[in-house]
Amino acid sequence: MAEAHQAVAFQFTITPEGIDLQLSYQALNQIYLSGLRSWKKRVSRMRNSVIKGVYPASPSSWLFVVIATLVTMYMHSDPSMGLIQCGCGSSLVFSTLLWLSLILALRFCLKLLLSYHQWMFERHGQISNTTKVWVTLVRLFSSRKPLLYSYQTSLPHLPVPAIKDTLSRYLESVRPLLSDVEFKQMTELASQFESTLGNRLQRYLKLKALWATNYVSDWWEEYVYLRSRSPIMVNSNYYGMDFLYVTPTPLQAARAGNTITALLLYRRKVNREELKPVGRVPGTVIPLCAAQCERMFNTTRTPGAETDVLQHWQDSEFVAVYHNGRYFRLWVYCAGRLLSPREIEYQIQRILDDSSPPQPGEEKLGALTAGDRIPWSQMRKQYFTSGVNKRSLDVIEKAAFFVTLDDEEQGMRGEDPVKNLDCYAKSLLHGKCYDRWFDKSFSIVIYKNGKNGLNAEHSWADAPTVAHLWEYTLATDAFQLGYTEDGHCKGQVDRSLPHPQRLVWDIPSEVQAQVQRSLAVAQALADDVDCHVFPFRDFGKGRIKKLRISPDAFIQISLQLAYYRDRGGFCLTYEASMTRLFREGRTETVRSCSNESCDFVKALEGGEAEEQCRRLFQLASEKHQNLYRLAMTGAGIDRHLFCLYVVSKYLGVESSFLKQVLSEPWRLSTSQTPVQQMELFDLKNHPDFISLGGGFGPVADDGYGVSYIIVGEDMINFHVSSKYSCSETVSKIFISLVMELCCLFSVPFSYYSLEI
């Protein structure tokens, strides 16, 4: 009752002498401090808006232009060529207009500079004079310290490739997968498409590119993610893992305290725009689009009958917590200040010590987010739009993020660490199918033994954005916040903090019945996933670079050979590449199965001479790098064809060519998780603090999902997924083939005489 009393700012009673007003100064002080935090954030946002609005100039440069104008007038010179009549007012107006014109000119020049991508195609150590001049100019224009979103208006728009070029690259990509007859038919279809419907669709697409910020991203988000009516668990969401060898503390509440604090410190950096909006490349730094950061926190995906909607709130002072079948609201701010890690640990421990049972229907309610989208949409619309259910659902959806206090232990532990690592991956990917809220932008999982992990919804952003967040969180947790000798969080505790609030539900039998149906769908999907995680420590990119081969190309060629030996043929291969060199860019597909990679595999399997295999291996590597560069610079294949297909649907016309292209299955879906912030801590002096990266479910029912992270110089972590229901795919066998081939490839071309 004490907390409830303090929640009332004032009370009054009517007496014969009049009204007796009783003010609670503590409560009024809390309101004042919370409001002060809100106004500080508004002022900060306004300040940042001005700074990034005039970038690459500075707000102070306006004063310089004004003074320069007044000085020239004092010297009886008219810089306005007659536009300034007289007086300081007209001089200020002219100076301001001149200043704005200079800003636009600078921004236009910076945009032209950032449209230059030829540097990506130059050989290492062979930089052209043009690129050297470009690097100098980019550094000159970027000399001021940029905010997170400073470059947004200066980034170039994603170009629409010529339809002839896209079709030519497409036919080249499918040549090794088709017989001569099939390829001739596909060539005829492509030619017919280009000469008839293709050019018409292309004109509409160019019109959109002129009008929209990015001609791909909005349609990609809507049609690939939000309009999907199948479960997003396993099919879309992905996961990130904790350190492999180290658990900073075995105390669940303490790990939760530091993890939540680190995430909120990252959110503060995002809100203040203190993150660097650049990606590192040899010799310089270039800006990457930061638009995906905007919806990282306080965001949820809400279901709809035909399409889902992403909802984002400006701020949230609490997180939603799930433990032992109950949902809680945990306030992480008090009187306008962020709680200390020790205070959050204290609050989390209160939740862990709460022995109250779940309310009827509460325990497995999260299964609605794991099953099909239409039933969840119907239940939400009918039973969660008013009353206590709406208020409780609002808490979950408006929370900064979702936290699960898992009652299991996970990690590479026990007598069978390999199997336990696979269980760890499956737990993060789907859990019990009801103890995660899969609609949240991301959910944090804290296990009983102190291990943690992350499950992320895919529609709002791609994995590199979440990986950046997770890298920061793990490093801040272990090296900045730290723990006491007995494993607790550091900091002081205000023990008068109000208890975390239990969410109240009134879940009717109809909803409970649908929860069971959704759970059955999700459980069948989860049980079918075969996950295998393998930390490969024989070597890493250090040895690969000595072979003068791209580490990514090395792994991709290994995957092609492993698939050939596993399945006896080649398949359409998807490798994710980013297009964040362009405004609002997301991803493009690198079709890793090329003519060159197939020629190498066939030569190696056919017992060709060592010199021939050496040459083909080098050609395959160079081809892969070129494909990756084309994808990054807007000359990819699949996003262009996807958008042409969307236009055809809007026009109500059918294209047999596009229909066939879009229906081709990706039996090998791959992705590299980039390590982006090596400066967070010294990996050489702390080699055990290695993150395992993360993974995702298989895209095709008869295919593999492969994620890998190249950590430091001496380690590569692999995550492979497939489906038990397909007798031809076994994750463990596939990754063992990859490992064998990687080991053979690492010996410079002496493997040709070896037999496997």
UniProtKB/TrEMBL annotation:
Pfam families reported for this sequence: Carn_acyltransf, CPT_N
Organism (species): Mastacembelus armatus
Annotated Carnitine O-palmitoyltransferase N-terminal domain residues: 1-47
UniProt record similarity statement: Belongs to the carnitine/choline acetyltransferase family.
Entry keyword Transferase: yes
Pathway membership: Lipid metabolism; fatty acid beta-oxidation
Annotated Choline/carnitine acyltransferase domain residues: 158-736
Top-level taxon: Eukaryota
InterPro entries: Carn_acyl_trans, CAT-like_dom_sf, Cho/carn_acyl_trans, Cho/carn_acyl_trans_2, CPT_N
Gene Ontology cellular-component terms listed: mitochondrial outer membrane
Protein name according to UniProt: carnitine O-palmitoyltransferase
Main EC class the enzyme belongs to: transferase
Cellular location(s): Mitochondrion outer membrane
